User: Fold these one by one.
Assistant:
Number 1:
Amino acid sequence: MNTINLDYISANPLLPEVQEAMIEAIKKNHGNPSSPHQLGEQATEVLEQAREKAARLINCASPQELVFTSSGTESINHAIKGIALAKAGKGKHIITSNIEHNAVLKSLRRLMKMDYRVTSVSVNEYGLVNPDDIAKAVTDETILVTIMHGNNEIGTIQPIKEIARITREKDILFHSDAVASVGVMPIDVQYLGVDLLSFSSNQFNGPSGVGGLYIRRGVSPLPLIDGGAQEDGRRAGTENLIGIIGMGVAADIAFREMECRVEHARKLKDRLIRGLKESIEDIIINGHPEFSLPNLVSVSIRYIEGESIVLMLDEKNIAVSTRSACASGALRASHVLLSIGREYADAQGTLVISFGRDTKESDIDRFLDALREAVEFLRNMSPLYKKAKAE
Amino acid sequence: MYSEVVMDHFKNPRNVGEMKDADGVGEVGNPVCGDMMNIYIKVKDDRIEDIKFLTFGCGAAIAVSSMLTEMAKGKTIEDARKITNKSVAEALEGLPKNKLHCSNLGADALQLAIKDYEDKKAGKVKSPPKAEDKHEHTKGDTCRCPYCDTDLGEAMEFCSNCGKDLGKEIFK
């Protein structure tokens, strides 16, 4: 039986066009874009073509506003630490939310050890940040606001444009982690009004090991990696040209297919949520019902634990992700789920189902059938379930 | 990640179920930590005649429960007392390091069930004993997990054993 990947947010397949472009690039033995000779110039040309394609996907005013990095994580680190270091003379206060990715969380915790102060605003039951809370948290010392676009665990999309209005007015820089959103739904940095935005190629059928950081013209985070003059001196190190070529092709296809992709994902999401509600009792669909990533569903299945569900589904060749503490190396519940008010036990039974352009309706149906079976099996041996049903 | 024996016991768990007329019940764990285990025993002539379990937990927790019941079934109380977390983990051909606490949980549940049986026999009437709160909250951010027998890292926002908040703010 073929394996059904409903864990797109962890890994999704390289498009055939991306594979071909990357294989061709490997065979071609490109030169180093920094070299002044012909080989170098040809490599520069290929590099800049990829930059144009990736920049168009997020509608940069100029391709030069896009810096290639090694990952979404590096982009986030670069944006947050780079601005913090560059603006330390103005102040050391940063505002964020309680449901950010670990790349944001841990970058900020690192800065706190260097005497920066962080205010983290809470979210409502749907995981939404209230822009007023951001406005209230601003002080004379505030140098940066960092709020994610689409949440990778529950899918909720934040009111980025409204937050940007506040940061513009108060002359504070605004970074958004859009790793889970770019390539999945339309993202327009000019419309959103952000100053920095992080994304990653492997979220839209491109290779891992390549990320992008949008830096609006005039904004200057301190580089994290020093060395040569690559990326206009903003990120040193010889470019990962093969990966960047792959990212360019993936970005180009994502840009052209965007409307179809969103529509396809929405249909699957509706089918999945309907199926879950119809076939399994005692579940909670997490995230905002409207402002949400089209390709991701988070569901808390009460009375059972996530890792055991994942293992049961894996036996049926279906891959999904869980946010249970048991499955995470740290053995702790997801801070995102706790922040939206899930009980510890319910957080334990939370699955994240994410999909993409190659997912079929029949995949969703097969998943629902397998999940129903797994839930019945596991609830039958759950003391929490027996207790709840006896009451 | 898991051995074949673990996967076999996870997929085909032995002795699943509740026992309404159990002679001894042992309950351990806490959903915060990710596991809850109930062990029920039926004792005849000082021998565990029947044993059942209910478990809320990961693959390892379920496999541990299943293996444990298989090992204890038919044993005298004296022999069952000798079942340790180590012998359960060994019978399962090993567990990943971060799942060793599941096997501790299982052995504790069985010992509690035996204690409950003996208390009842001795005429001590009381409800099934809860697992003792053996762990302590240390200063600052860390907390000791009695099942892993390790200090939990600074990243912990709450104790994974009892759920005590170690500071509500994500940033503090």
Number 2:
Amino acid sequence: MNFIIDYYNYWVVVFLMMAGFYTVIAANNLVKKIVGLNIFQTSVFILYISMGKVTGGSAPIVADGITVYSNPLPHVLILTAIVVGVATTAVGLAIVVRIKHAYGTVEENEFKDKDDLI
Amino acid sequence: MFGQHFLILPVVLPLMAAPLCIIFSHRLFAWLLATLVSGLSFVISINLLLAALEQGVLSYAVGGWEAPWGIEVRLDAASAMVLSVVTGISTLVLIYAKASIETEIDTNQHTLFYTAHLLCLTGLSGILSTGDAFNLFVFLEISSLATYTLVSLASDKRCLTAAFRYLVMGTIGATFILIGVGMMYMQTGTLNMMDLAGRIAEIGGSRTLNTGLAFILVGVSIKLALFPLHMWLPPAYTHAPSAVSAFLASTATKVAVYVMVRFIFTIYGAEYVFHTMGMDLILLLLAIVAIFKCSFMAMAQSNVKTVLAYSSVAQIGYMILGISLASAAGLMAGLLHVFNHALMKGALFMAVGAVLYRTGSVDIKAFRGLGIKMPFTMAAFVIAGMSIVGVPLTAGFVSKWYLVTAALEQQNWLVAFLILLGSLLAVIYIFRIIETAYLKKPIESAANKDIKEAPLIMLIPMWILALANIYFGLDTSLSVAAAESASHWLAFSTLSEGGVQ
């Protein structure tokens, strides 16, 4: 039981990662693929945030009587990764909009030409 | 005072110029600015390469924060060599692009093309010069996002699905790298590459580090299109504008190969990756399958750009094969092939782009009789094609020679034989196109009568690359010296001359 409770965050990470990854592979709708990609990336954000936690540590703000602080660096790193994720989503959705204009559909199984299948 | 800041200029210059292209939104200005900035970066990179060959390592602390706290910009012979290739090819492609994109990209999107190209160059130079593992991920994503945009700029609607597929695969690859870097940080508490190398050697392997390595290698393999993770590459290179294909085929995957070399040799150490984890056999097998499977795929295509795209995947196989031999000689051959392949693929894609510019098609049927109608373009194609095959007196021969020598050094006769056999397959898919161009009669029609030689602005960059193929096939002193110094620098402590066996 401890194995689950001690690593609770990491179980969440693994679950989200696989759920997102599965959606990317299995979804038929291109927008849903992007959503899956987002969930996949979000799981990594949680992984980074979880690893910054130091057991018994407080928030990394200097204060009297506190000696143990959590590590703020992974949080800052993931801020950058979130920006990258947002940019990727924007580019992805923009391409989906143009696919809709060009093909008239965003459903993978409705593409007529086999070569265009994603 | 200015001297030490040179190291960061190849990254900063294109980054500053990119928004200017959009703000002024003038086609000629954007082209001039992009070419100028890219050329300037090239001159700086060449100087950095010469300095790196002399001094070993050049280091610069961004914002005055010393490593390992701040981000370190760090250039050694390996990174400076690839940086010179990337900036050089970028400059030539930009000169070429002026005419090429006229028919392939909407007029009002030309400034966007130059902006995205410069951003892509920023990302690639950043990957090559950074000494920080997380920073590498950020630059990788800068270049990748610009790349998706570049691919989707073509007027053919199929480029959109290709770009979408590329985006999904590329993002998964980058996220895998992010997970791997996170695991390394978890175990070591640092992100600086040299710091990481020291601490990983101290720890000597743990489950977290092994998992991190696995994530990183899979992620980078997607980015460099190693078989069987190459499925995004052929459609992306086929449907992208020709100038973009020429740029990406000769730089983006090469930079990803560099990232793999960096992670294997500098950070984890070759001994650990190849000996303890047994990656050499896995990479060797994948590389050989890539060479054969994708060469066969290249033979079966009727679209010449697809032929070249599959050939790219096969050639990446040679680079990975060199790395997987796990010896200084093998690594050197791999790096040399990175350099030479950039020259030949750049020239080939430029030649095909010129055919597309004049005939409006890249189907093999459109090549009939072009040997007479577009003599200079096809001659450049033949020279670069010879180089892909590995005919003596071309650059391709030099890298194949070193690859075979590296394989024979380990008495690995089978691998040496397979390398030579792979070259024979290249003969088939390249000569199929050359034969069509020179020996088949053109289809006589009104539209075909007007086909004439490509404009000079396309021919000059194409011929610079084609002649570079011959020059670096005859005078190998610069390229071999750079690759040799790079491989020794990367492998000096982790490998003995004969490799780990």
